[in-house]
Amino acid sequence: MRAEIISVGTELLLGEIVDTNAAFLSQELAALGIELYHRTTVGDNAGRLKQALTEALARVDLVITSGGLGPTDDDLTKETVAEVLGLPLVLHQPSLAWIEEYFAKTGRCMPENNYKQALIPAGGEALPNRKGTAPGVSVRKEGKWVICLPGPPQELCPMFREYVRPLLAAESRGVIRSRVLRLCGIGESALAKEIADLLANQTNPTLAPLASEGEVRLRITAFAESVAKAEAAIADLEQKLRARLGQMIYGVDDETLEAVVVGLLRQRGETLAVAESCTGGLLANRITDVPGASTVFDRGVVVYSNRAKEELLGVPAAVIEQVGAVSPEVATLMARGVRDRTGSDWGIGITGIAGPGGGTAEKPVGLVYFALAGPGVNLVREARFTGDRQQIKRRTTQAVLDLLRRTLLAARE
């Protein structure tokens, strides 16, 4: 079954609200094995909505709309669907009774314009709305299927789960499953070269690289007649990728790099403290966003000034004066200092130039040094990141977390 989503609402086109409905519906359709060909957004305009519906029905079997089922004059979805399908609107008495009861429970009389919400295209099925006054509609004609859902997510999502999903599941001939592998330490172009043969010869499952901030993701998608077969196909390709890419793969799906690091520290029963300059506490923030991080994260200090580096970490003023605050020597002393002064197993030091100003020809914006001190370990790395201030800070913390992750994995082997 081929599908298209049409999101209705001028507020979507103006960017006043984010279309979370389309993302939700896309995920649900994929899980049901229904191929989504297009997603269209159209304003509250009958002519343009009619055009969008006509084009959609010419190229797919199933159209799902969201929005435009309210009581006002610009809520025109059902009316336009009925016109495109050549069907009259008829009163659905149970829906009218529900709407009247809805208002009665609040001690109000139903406004006259809410009456239109109980109208559905002839031959269609009304989908109850337990969270609002606008029923949904499922209507079929000549092999085409249109499902109209309300716009508010708190109404659309439960209506889909309770009523639409069972209808679609009965029609679906398979399932689609996806798994995302998350990688650090390799760029998108280098990754594409590394797996060029797998990308060139893909059929089912499919493989797609997706660039993200400081990492790359590989999405594996399989279509099969059952969940078990789809997951087996994904597992087979994943095994090949892991054999080839090794530790560059740090996690799967929604797993974050900081969560992986916290998990590794917890397994080892070890603690971490960090000293940050140019990242301004972002590394500590990412780590403490992980539930349960308090079992391994001792503390983080932001030592932005030279005086702070000297007073809180014991970095000698003479060293800073000789080589500069942005240097491998200072990063190393920061990592050792925060480790020694907190008694933590691991210490991290970060110093750099996040910009947009402050750089020189010798030490440009984006130059970062980060160091790791631990049991028998003293490492320091130089990186030259591009991007704006926030991107440089984010990419720095990503590189630091990846260094710690790889070091912990190596120590475990």
Description:
- This protein is 42% helix and 25% strand.
- The chain is of the alpha/beta class.
- The chain has three domains: 2-171, MoaB/Mog-like domain (Molybdenum Cofactor Biosythetic Enzyme, Chain A, 3-Layer(aba) Sandwich); 175-252, Alpha-Beta Plaits, CATH 3.30.70; 257-412, Maf protein (Alpha-Beta Complex).
- Helix 2 packs parallel to helix 6 (153-171), helix 3 packs across helix 4 and helix 10 (257-268) runs parallel beside helix 15.
- The protein is elongated and about 85 Å long.
- The protein starts with a strand and ends with a helix.
Q: Please give the radius of gyration in angstroms.
A: 28 Å
Straight-line distance between termini: 49 Å
Global mean pLDDT: 95
The CATH architecture name of the largest domain reads 3-Layer(aba) Sandwich
| Major sheet size, sense and barrel closure | 6 strands, mixed
Give me the CATH fold name of the largest domain: Molybdenum Cofactor Biosythetic Enzyme, Chain A
Report the strand count: 17
CATH superfamily of the largest domain: MoaB/Mog-like domain
The neighbouring-strand order within the major sheet is: 2-1-3-8-7-6
**Unreliable residue runs:** none
Beta-strand proportion: 25-35%
Number of domains: 3
What's the helical proportion of residues?
40-55%
Oligomer state of the chains in this structure: single chain
The number of helical runs is 15
Gross geometry:
elongated
Could you name the CATH class of the largest domain? Answer: Alpha Beta
Instruction: State the secondary-structure class.
Output: alpha/beta
Keywords: Coiled coil
Pfam family, one: CinA_KH
Protein name: Putative competence-damage inducible protein
Family: Belongs to the CinA family.
